[in-house]
Amino acid sequence: MSIKNSTIVVASFILVGRFTGFIREWLLSSISGANAQTDVAVVLFTFPDLIVSLFLGGGLSTSLIPYLGSLEKQKKKKFVRQISIYVGLIFFILALLFSIKLDILWNLLAPGFGHEVKKEANNYFLIILFCLPLSSIAGVLTAYLNSKSNFKIAASGNVLFNIGIIIGLLLNIPILLRVTVGIIIGSLLRFFIQNIYTNLFKNNWKKNLFDENLIKKDFIKLFLFNFTFVTSIILMPTIGKAWASTINEGSLTIFSYGNKLIELPLGIIIGSLSSVLLTKLTNDSSIINIIKSIRFVFLVTLIFSIPAFFASPLIVKAVYFKGQFDNYQLNELIAITKIGYLFLVPRVMISLFSTIFAARKKQKFLVPVGIFMILLTNFLSYIFSLSGKLESIAYANGITYLFASFIIYILLNKYISKKINKELIT
Fold first, then answer.
1. Contact yes or no for 347/407 (Cβ under 8 A)
2. Chain-centre distance of CA 25, in angstroms?
3. What pTM, to 2 d.p., does this model score?
């Protein structure tokens, strides 16, 4: 399948995934609007995938796909099984550790939450923690499916997870219990469906599983380089939500609703292309392919972001027409959505550039940039949050994306090819 056709397939599934995510957010806003309980709900239903993305996420995909290409065909499934077992055990231990120190998690994810709010949500949080092993193995299965160019099933993971949450939200029970039940359903649904298509855990899959250790130092080294930078990208919205929780009650929810509107084009443009391009560029990472990818992604993002910026009030009101917001909250949501679209181009280009570095196995040059992004966004968020305005947090994120995109572009020309800038401007 060509890059164009593969991208269309993945984009279609990501669109459905983002749409089900919209339904999830829309249901939550229709049921409770934006308040302390919805702030907790947002933290709960984003937590499993957030932790898995932080520890695995794109770092695993950008490591596993090129590494699998170097293995013999008969060893590929065994390697993925070994990774899955180790990852599942690691995340089970993480869940146990997190359950002992829940206050540390709350302080990292939502430092603005009061004691009573956290106390009410603790039992639900404990239940959700033990969805981590399933979610982590699903992350491995997704990376494996992408490596086999089975993009449809890989991209359906978010759809299945969101369907589970939607089912939970439709139940006539307390809101936090709805979210908890939904996460359990979504985690199970995603794992079992993806496992059916990978055939990794069927029949005699345990036989001779560990007679040869296929997880070599080269793979671990590759993963660690990817992990550092990709984690910084994933952390950016989470850092924003954490600082948003210090503004007002319901601010974390508003920030999350606005971010959802940005994630739709972000997921379609770069999520689909990254999954496809990483596989294709691993096989042929020629300068011509890199130039074509940069031009195409830049133009598509620019064409979308300009009208979206001006149409932000209409988009927000159309999507959240049943949201239980007051006028101040609605204006905040419109403001942070506009800011998100304003900085959409650098945000997308960062993801694309990191994919190019991954295809060339030169991720180590991005490690300092990832650390810089985390430090800068926290510094700017602290300074800007003194104004007491939610949009200031969105500006802190956006400015960080802008600076980071310029730095990575310079590194791209230095370590990938000096011809890139020359070719792009001619």
1. no
2. 16
3. 0.73
CA 302 – CA 344 distance, rounded (Å): 8
Kindly report which listed range (118-127, 131-140, 265-274, 309-318) carries the lowest average pLDDT score. Answer: 265-274
Share of the chain above pLDDT 70, in %: 86
Cα-based angle 64, 66, 70 (whole degrees, multiple of 5): 105
264-293 b/e with 16+ CB inside 10 Å = b?
A: bbbbbbbbbbbbbbbbbbbeebeeebbbeb
73, burial (CB in 10 Å: exposed 0-12, middle 13-18, buried 19+): exposed
What Cα–Cα distance (Å) separates residue 27 from each residue in 33, 44, 106, 256, 409? Answer: 9, 15, 24, 14, 40
Cα separation, 34 vs 37, whole angstroms: 8
Amino acid at the residue 183: I
Find the range with the poorest average confidence among 77-91, 196-210, 226-240, 411-425: 196-210
* 197 in Cβ contact with 150 (< 8 Å): yes
Model confidence at 2, in pLDDT bands (50, 70, 90)? low
Mean pLDDT value of segment 133-150:
82
Q: What is the DSSP string of 329-370?
A: HHHHHHHHHHHHHHTHHHHHHHHHHHHHHHHTT-GGGGHHHH
CA 71 – CA 108 distance, rounded (Å): 39
At 243, which helix (H) or strand (E)? Answer: helix 217-244
